[in-house]
Task: inverse folding
């Protein structure tokens, strides 16, 4: 809003503005209000009511001093009472089981990033010169799961906090190129603010509002203590074939060339097994990687048929490469892949 226009607003207009779900930092809202108060000393009787619409408990001591320096804007007793009341209310924690706690698209508030309309769909986008989107849940919730859908390929990290300070990283996928639906589990913690921070090479990125979910999930999950990656217990369905030829009921590639069958997961997992179905006697080997390069050879077999159990040292996996070295008619055919093996 234009500074001159904002300066001339009545207390009633400022009150209406503060009651809107403003998509900016609470500190920015507070600074704007303090500036308006200093420009409009004749409306000092309205200052306490307007200040009560700002969550001053989220602010730093330095920012709060703006109410008293260089001149007093608010009664110190009222200020202390309001701050105490807000801090008590802010400590209330809700635990909503298996239900998304992010409100509707109209209620959703972001304090970093911006809302954009793309193809008639509301999306969250990176703001200029920033690499993160920060969501304000407005209340404290116990969470252990976050879901959203990526359009494109990018690495990211998830950090959370209660009061816009002392951020904790609960998911670190910065070193992985992720895509599609992300289902992230982490140790349960009390959260109000969720920040999705992307690699700095990303200049523009969007997430559809309806695809973002934050919840306390009762689904059982296991996490690798060293990498923080999930260890799946059931077959992963979020695999995309990025190399190979799909033909009727199988995937194939030509033997004795540089052909292969490559699958990419939507996100990295700790994997140590998989099952392959070969309906023709074949020889093959399996490699895995966290990038579509620097492959690690983990398994090989010769002259086998039927369901094959592939086991190897459990490790971070984002890509699976299956290479046939011998097969009838020089075409290696894979009829089914299950990962992990169950």
Result:
């Amino acid at each position: 809003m234009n500074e001159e226009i904002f300066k001339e607003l009545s207390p009633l207009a400022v009150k209406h503005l503060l009651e809107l779900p403003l998509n900016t930092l609470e500190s920015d809202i507070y600074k704007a209000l303090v500036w308006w108060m200093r420009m409009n000393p004749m409306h000092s009787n309205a200052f306490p009511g307007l200040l009560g619409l700002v969550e001053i408990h989220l602010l730093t001591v330095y920012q709060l001093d703006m109410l008293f320096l260089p001149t007093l804007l608010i009664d110190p007793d009222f200020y202390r009472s309001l701050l105490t009341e807000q801090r008590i209310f802010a400590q209330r924690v809700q635990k909503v089981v298996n239900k998304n706690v992010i409100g509707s698209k109209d209620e959703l508030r972001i304090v970093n990033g911006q809302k954009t309309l793309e193809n008639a769909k509301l999306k969250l986008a990176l703001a200029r010169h920033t690499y993160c989107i920060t969501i304000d849940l407005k209340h404290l919730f116990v969470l252990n799961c976050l879901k959203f859908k990526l359009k494109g390929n990018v690495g990211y990290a998830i950090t959370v906090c209660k009061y816009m300070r002392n951020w904790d990283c609960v998911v670190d996928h910065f070193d992985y190129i992720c895509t599609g639906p992300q289902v992230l589990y982490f140790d349960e913690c009390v959260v109000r603010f969720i920040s999705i921070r992307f690699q700095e090479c990303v200049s523009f990125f969007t997430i559809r509002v309806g695809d973002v979910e934050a919840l306390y999930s009762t689904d059982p999950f296991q996490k690798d203590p060293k990498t923080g990656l999930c260890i799946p217990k059931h077959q992963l369905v979020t695999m995309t074939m990025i190399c190979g030829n799909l033909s009727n009921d199988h995937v194939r590639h030509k033997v004795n060339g540089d052909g292969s069958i490559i699958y990419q997961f939507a996100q990295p997992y700790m994997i140590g097994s998989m099952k392959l179905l070969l309906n023709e006697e074949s020889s093959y080997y399996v490699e895995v990687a966290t990038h579509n390069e620097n492959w690690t050879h983990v398994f090989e077999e010769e002259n086998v048929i039927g369901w094959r159990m592939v086991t190897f040292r459990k490790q971070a996996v984002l890509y699976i490469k299956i290479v046939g070295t011998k097969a009838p008619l020089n075409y290696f055919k894979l009829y089914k892949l299950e990962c992990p093996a169950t």
Summary: The helical segments are 3-7, 11-18, 26-39, 47-51, 61-64, 76-90. Residues 3-91 form one domain.
